[in-house]
Structures are given as structure tokens and as C-alpha cells.
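testing teh design pipeline on a random one, pls ignore if ur not involved
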């Protein structure tokens, strides 16, 4: 056997060439795109490990150090490449101008397929188009808007306010984030499936599903933030660790979804029901063809999961940060309370539109703490962004809504301050003035803009009106002080949930 026939010795001989090639590729990439805190071979791994607890602020810091608020991401051993931006011009290019070149792609499917399947949030092309078409039509109907408004009002009156009133009477601290999560879950079950969960404390199959769904989201999220993807892939292959727990959580999720679908199939005149799943089932039966019943049910299962993902935690997450911020800014709280005092007790959908300061405060909260802090695509073909950033085929292309809210180039030198007035024409007493959507991509932009944006604001306003007219909500930790604003307590996940929850005490408000 010759010297080069031995596999180990051959590998040793090739290592210098491998490292030279990797180093050269990274040096070439660095000459094209800024890549702060990136090193040959190990890429951004050291910075990721050091800043894992403050990942989004770390990304914002690096983006602010680059000339165009865009950076290149280099993974460990050069296994993947990507770019991340907080530049509105690039966001427009990514989500609108060259929309067809940026897709969810294999990376998104690989990380989230067990949970999302072929639902609207994880697919491209025809599968996305047909779901978007049906969803867009349903969200534009007046009947669904009134149905959602009625559900929220009913749930507030019968579930949320009574529960908080009891906590107030007992002077007991509660985790507002957890309570809001349960409340929004009850809402989405009623709106999306027509399922009534009568008690927020009811531990039934519904809340078992909610727990399993949360676990599945967390396990899938950890895949994205794992610096060495091979680790979770090996765990999945061997069915051990978090991947085994993910599999168990998905089983519970699937069982619940199938139970919901069967209940809808047993209902008569399904097209006359007002919940979203019934409407979707009616539309798909006339506009889509399936190989067999099992395929149809799998597709409907993915629709169920999409509804839950869209409506379960995004609103509760947004409101948690809103109440945290308001606690640290008493002047803003007073202005909101004063505005609510002008609202009739039997307010309507149109009355909510007149709450300019509340709308500004919610928008400002979303600017600083977007429920989905970062969004990702895969590049189909080589491209050059408006700022000169080179993006190669197969690279991931991210934009950080969280970082964008902290860019002085986008929002000015006071960008890290909570100032609802920046959204008002003429200051504190002015009319709400929408921002350029590419400066504020919290609800996404372009063809994939969130269909539920308007209803999300209606839901958030309705909840804030009900709670702030009834209670003074006092954060146990004092809320968003200047120091805490610099190091906010969030978790590293697909959603920007508050780490440890939001502990509050409630006092009955007088004279509102």
C-alpha cells in the first residue's frame, strides 16, 4: 500500500489545502461584505457563545458598526453563509423588489417542517399562493372582523377580567405574560376552530396541546441557534435529547389537530360556520384536489398549526412588552388613561380607531420589541443588494426587525427610547401617522405582509382598554427602567417572549 492509500494520512495531507481554501474564501467574502467578530475557520462562533443571552442586541450592535447596517454571517467551519440587514432599502429589495429570489427554502423546511408541515408560513410557490388567496379573502370579510371582535369582548368579560379581579382582591402577584398567553390561546381556539375553552384554569386536552405546541416551538427554535447543526441532526437520527422530546410534543399537537378536523367534518352545513377552519375547509373542498383523505387531513392539520402560530403568542408577547414599558413610563400611562376616559363604555370598532395615542404607544412598543425579532430567507440566485452587499446562491438572507428599531440611521439618536410621540403628527395630542413599512417591518412587507395586522391592533386595543380602565397594573420589578432597557430580559426563540414572565400586582382603578 502506498503512502497516499492510507485514509488517515491522506486526510492529514489534505488538511492544509482545506484550511487554505476555507481561509481564502472567507478573506474574499470579507473584502466584499463587512463581517464583524468573524474569524477564519471558526466564523462568528466565539461571539455567538459569548452573547447567546443577548443575541438580538449583539446582532444590533454589530449592524450599527457596519456602514450600511448590513453584515455577513460566517458559520463554524464555513458550513453555511448568510447576510443580515437592518437597512430599509435592503428590506424593500428582499421582500418586494426581488421577492422571487428570496424564499423560505430548504433551511426553513429542515428546521420547522415537523411543526409547520406545508402550512402557509413554511412553503413557497403554488402551495403558498393558494393558502394566501383563501386567507386574504376571508380576512377581508366583515363577518370575520365582527366575529373576532365579538370573541375578544366575550372572553374579556367572562374570563380575563374576572380572573384579574380576583387576583386584585387577594393582592396576589400574577404572571401577566402567562395569563395573556392563555387568554390569546382561548381566543384563537374560538376564532379559528369554534372551540370554546370555558376556563383559563382548565387543564384539558386543549391546554395539553398548548403546552406541547410551546415545547415544539422552543425545540425547533433551538435548531436555528445551534452553532453546530450536526448536533441536533444526530439527536434526531438517534431519537435522543431535545429531538426525542420534540417528537413527543408533535404527537400531541397532531392528535389535537386531527380531533379538531374531525369535529368540523361532523358538523352540518360547514360553510355557514364563522370560524376560520370551517371557512378554509369549505374553500379547499372546491378549489383544491387531494390524492386521498389522509393527504387532505394532513393539509388541514398544517392549516390548524398555522392559525395557532399566527394567533396564539404574537399578541400576548406584544402586550407583555407594552405593559412592561408603560410601567417604566408613567407619563405615557397617564396619557393613555386620559384618552380612554373619553371612550364610551359601549365602544365600537370605529371608536377604537380614534385612540391615536394608544395606537402610537402600541406601535412604539412593537418597534422596540417586535414579537418576531428576526426573519430569514434563502437566496435562489446570486444577487447584489442596493447597498452593494453581495449575496450568493444558497445563502440565508435575514432582516432583523429588532435591530432596525435600534438603528440611529433609521430612527434617529433617540431610537432606544420609548417615545410614542414619534408616531403622532404634531406631538402628544396629534393624529397617528403611520411609518414607512420598510422602517417598521414588524408585520412583514410586500406579498407576505401579515393579513391579520389590522385585527391584531383591534385585539390589542380592546384588551388594553378593558384592563387599563379597570386596573392599575404595577410591575413587581418596576418595569422598563433606563438600565433594563439596555439589557431587556428576553428569551432566545422564534418569538421574543419575556424571560421569567412579567410579575404584576393589580389595583382597582377609580374614576376612569
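output:
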Amino acid at each position: 500500500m502506498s503512502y497516499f492509500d492510507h485514509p488517515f494520512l491522506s486526510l492529514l495531507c489534505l488538511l492544509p489545502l482545506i484550511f487554505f481554501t476555507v481561509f481564502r474564501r472567507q478573506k474574499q467574502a470579507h473584502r466584499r461584505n463587512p463581517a464583524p467578530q468573524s474569524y477564519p475557520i471558526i466564523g462568528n462562533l466565539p461571539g455567538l457563545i459569548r452573547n447567546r443571552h443577548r443575541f438580538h442586541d449583539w446582532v444590533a450592535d454589530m449592524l450599527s458598526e457596519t456602514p450600511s447596517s448590513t453584515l455577513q454571517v460566517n458559520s463554524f467551519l464555513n458550513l453555511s453563509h448568510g447576510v443580515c440587514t437592518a437597512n430599509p432599502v435592503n428590506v424593500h429589495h428582499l421582500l418586494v423588489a426581488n421577492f422571487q429570489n428570496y424564499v423560505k427554502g430548504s433551511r426553513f423546511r429542515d428546521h420547522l417542517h415537523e411543526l409547520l408541515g406545508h402550512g402557509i408560513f413554511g412553503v413557497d410557490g403554488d402551495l403558498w399562493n393558494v393558502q394566501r388567496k383563501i386567507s386574504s379573502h376571508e380576512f377581508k370579510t366583515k363577518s370575520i372582523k365582527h366575529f373576532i371582535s365579538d370573541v375578544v369582548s366575550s372572553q374579556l368579560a367572562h374570563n380575563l377580567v374576572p380572573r384579574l379581579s380576583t387576583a386584585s382582591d387577594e393582592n396576589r402577584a400574577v404572571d401577566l405574560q402567562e395569563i395573556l398567553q392563555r387568554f390569546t390561546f382561548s381566543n384563537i381556539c374560538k376564532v379559528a376552530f369554534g372551540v370554546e375553552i370555558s376556563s383559563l384554569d382548565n387543564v384539558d386536552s386543549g391546554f395539553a396541546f398548548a403546552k406541547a405546541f410551546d415545547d415544539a416551538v422552543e425545540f425547533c427554535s433551538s435548531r436555528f441557534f445551534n452553532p453546530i447543526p450536526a448536533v441536533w441532526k444526530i439527536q434526531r437520527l438517534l431519537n435522543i435529547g431535545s429531538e426525542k422530546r420534540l417528537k413527543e410534543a408533535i404527537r400531541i399537537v397532531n392528535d389535537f389537530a386531527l380531533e379538531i378536523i374531525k369535529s368540523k367534518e361532523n358538523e352540518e352545513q360547514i360553510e355557514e360556520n364563522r370560524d376560520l377552519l370551517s371557512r378554509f375547509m369549505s374553500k379547499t373542498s372546491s378549489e383544491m384536489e387531494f390524492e386521498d383523505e389522509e393527504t387532505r387531513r394532513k393539509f388541514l392539520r398544517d392549516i390548524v398549526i398555522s392559525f395557532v402560530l399566527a394567533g396564539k403568542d404574537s399578541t400576548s408577547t406584544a402586550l407583555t412588552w407594552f405593559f412592561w414599558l408603560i410601567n417604566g413610563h408613567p407619563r405615557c400611562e397617564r396619557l393613555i388613561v386620559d384618552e380612554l376616559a373619553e371612550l364610551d363604555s359601549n365602544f365600537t370598532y370605529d371608536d377604537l380607531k380614534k385612540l391615536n395615542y394608544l395606537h402610537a404607544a402600541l406601535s412604539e412598543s412593537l418597534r422596540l420589541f417586535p414579537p418576531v425579532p428576526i426573519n430569514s430567507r434563502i437566496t435562489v440566485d446570486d444577487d447584489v443588494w442596493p447597498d452593494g452587499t453581495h449575496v450568493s446562491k444558497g445563502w440565508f438572507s435575514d432582516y432583523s426587525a429588532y435591530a432596525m428599531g435600534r438603528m440611529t440611521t433609521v430612527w434617529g439618536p433617540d431610537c432606544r427610547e420609548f417615545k410614542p410621540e414619534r408616531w403622532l403628527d404634531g406631538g402628544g395630542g396629534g393624529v397617528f401617522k403611520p411609518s414607512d413599512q420598510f422602517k417598521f417591518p414588524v408585520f412583514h412587507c410586500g406579498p407576505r405582509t401579515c393579513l391579520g395586522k389590522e385585527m391584531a391592533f383591534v385585539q390589542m386595543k380592546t384588551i388594553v382598554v378593558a384592563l387599563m380602565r379597570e386596573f392599575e397594573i404595577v410591575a413587581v420589578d418596576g418595569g422598563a427602567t433606563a438600565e433594563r432597557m439596555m439589557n431587556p430580559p428576553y428569551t432566545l426563540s422564534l418569538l421574543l417572549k419575556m424571560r421569567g414572565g412579567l410579575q404584576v400586582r393589580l389595583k382597582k382603578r377609580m374614576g376612569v
